[in-house]
Give the backbone structure.
Amino acid sequence: MTGGFEPLTSTLKPTTDATITVRLIKSFEYRTERNMVLKDVDLTKTTAGDLLELAKKSVYTRYSGLVCGSMQAANLHHASFRYPDSTSNLIINLEHEDWILSDYSRTLADYGFVNETEVSMFNKEMYDQYKANPVEKW
């Protein structure tokens, strides 16, 4: 411990051995999602496309496809927030479409991922519908 502060957990592991949390968004309106942790991810070699395929494969093996409806036409959205970029929407930040990972050939490190980064996985069509009419239901 230096200067009375402990190091951030995001800096404790190298980018070649990171842990990523994937938020599998099932419904934007009802704010339902399931978290899935992927360990031992090499951020310097894993592309956004690789992560998408790994997450899809993990959904089917871990959850027997329980969230598979939202995984068709899936997209990824970088969800780690810094204080000024936080949002009042609890399921996804609608104000930062630039956080949607659109170039699947770029590595996660290129996108700024570090250990313990969170990323949302969702159906783009459902996202577009929700963005046009962001009504939350109970």
Remarks:
- The chain is about 20% helix and 20% strand.
- The chain has a mean pLDDT of 81.
